[in-house]
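Hi R.,

Here's the chain you asked about this morning:
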Amino acid sequence: MLILLRLYGEREFASLAIGFEWKIAEAIEPKRLASTLSWLSFALTIGESALYHASKRAQYSKFDNALTLTQAIPEKPFRDGGYVERMGLIASALEASLSHAPEKWLPRDDVVVIKGSIKDACNYLQQRPPLTKEEVRNWLNRAAERVRQKFPEESNSVGGYEQDSGGAEPGADNNDLGAQIILQWKDDALIFADSDSSTFFDVMEKLERDIESHCGELIAVDGHDFGSGTANIFVYTDHVRRAIDLLIKLADANKLPACVRIGTPDPFGTVRAHYPKDLRKFDLM
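And here is the predicted structure, written out as tokens:
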């Protein structure tokens, strides 16, 4: 399992996250984890509005076999604090994000190991100066090499790493899966939609299978996320209008759980609402 950590909000703080990524990866690499994930990705935000306007969220991607955990860092203490305080806040956010991880993808024993690695990384980093640009560059190159070894068929930018990038920002996203469509429900609408399912993730996965069964090769389901009161399923298609029309027909025929919302994201971070007809604003939250 490879570790990816990004800190969103200010570019100047990106190297702080790289330090944690480096030390956590070093600590867990020799240990035998039970998880079969290819990636465990942490997305930390400075303030709750920095990414998805969410204070907590978990997302699983089938295509990458990746679990992404999002957690907000309190903005004022982070900006007002010094280096040591900021590292402590990052460590606290990382540990808190692990509480959102479904045990199906990240067993409790693995969580204990990773939390221990986070504490060790924090203690190490708080006792040394901030990473230099050269140390950041060296880690990114080493990380890119580890990715190429695990995914030799992929390009250098797999997982957001680019060799010789010289910075801490993710690489370009080169997926060729087509356009994305988002199906959204309130958490409680889904939880009670299928009383035979024992967990929320059972409900989500059953719904993904149902969508795939109804839509066939027209769409590809790329997992789901949840948090802060909503649940989203993400699908990709090369035929957006046909796929949206079919999903709307399924909703009108009650073949999708009630209260579904259907939208398509644009490059500017907003989502265009397609269903229901009276929906004027589509929020990811």
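One quick note: The chain has a mean pLDDT of 79.

Cheers,
M.
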